[in-house]
């Protein structure tokens, strides 16, 4: 139904209706019938909106997972582009900060973190930008899991430490 039909319970006249001469005679219902038809349209519209909202909620909930952190837990914080000043943002800079401690739970979706002094951004993060910290994930990163300078051919070396042999 169109919004006009929901409010006035009749279809508006369109351009094609204006081609022929409109009829001067309209069948009008009594006021009680009009109110009953209008309330039926409103009930139908309300039911459809509730069903549509429920369908959207089911689709959105498929992608959500409940994560609950406690004060004192350590997490990885993901820094998004909007958290950097325009001149400081670099696509090559590390986006994952941590492990950082949770200082306060503001609500189920927002947490206040204890950030290092060099980070110049708000200390409140949405839960979607937080990853639980575990010792296993820390040891993986220490072994060169995310180090872009790690030498893949000789795991104990770092390409930044090796002198250039061509000089």
Automatic annotation (TrEMBL):
Tf2-1-like SH3-like domain span: 72-133
Positions with biased composition (Acidic residues): 156-167
Highest taxon of the lineage: Eukaryota
InterPro entries attached to this UniProt entry: SH3_Tf2-1
Chain spans, region Disordered: 135-167
Classification via Pfam families: SH3_Tf2-1 (PF24626)
Protein name as it appears in the record: Tf2-1-like SH3-like domain-containing protein
